[in-house]
Amino acid sequence: MSDHAIILRGAGLRATPQRLALLHALGKARGPQTAEELHAKADADLVTIYRNLQSLVKAGIVHEVRFKDTAVRFELSHGHHHHIVCTSCGLIEELEGCRNSPLEHQALHASSRFSRINDHALEFFGICRSCA
């Protein structure tokens, strides 16, 4: 049994060929992928891709990522991290780890209406070395 099949079954999902293909494509990807990009890599129609992605997100196996271009991207859930995106070519680099506790504390302290922060997303945008 493959690692992906074990992950799916552990989350209570069947290890269908489409789900296995999606997880394989996400595992090999260099950064978050749109459903259309995954459609080109996995042998399934686009509706099936979207349906399976939503199941994987709900199970916590896959995470949604949204940048300024409004396209929803997906990546395997593997710990909290952030991204830096090239605004010229679209290159996406993962920034491992997160040291935002002081920032979360400041945001909560500055807010007059919130008592707790459950999650956050922080993305950086710039120009990569190849485009500079």
Task: Give a summary of the structure in a few sentences.
By secondary structure, the chain is α+β, with helices and mostly antiparallel strands. It contains five helices and six strands.
Q: Could you characterize what this model shows?
A:
The protein has 132 residues and is an alpha+beta fold. It is built from five helices and six strands, in the order ααβααββββαβ. The protein has helices at 3-10, 17-28, 35-41, 46-58, 101-110; strands at residues 33-34, 62-66, 72-76, 81-86, 92-96, 123-126. The strands form two sheets. The protein has a three-stranded antiparallel sheet. Strands 5-4-6 form a three-stranded mixed sheet, with no helix packed on it. β2 and β3 (72-76) form a beta hairpin. α3 (35-41) packs across α4 (46-58). The longest helix has 13 residues, at 46-58. The chain is globular and about 50 Å long. It starts with a helix and ends in a 6-residue tail after the last strand. The mean pLDDT is 89.
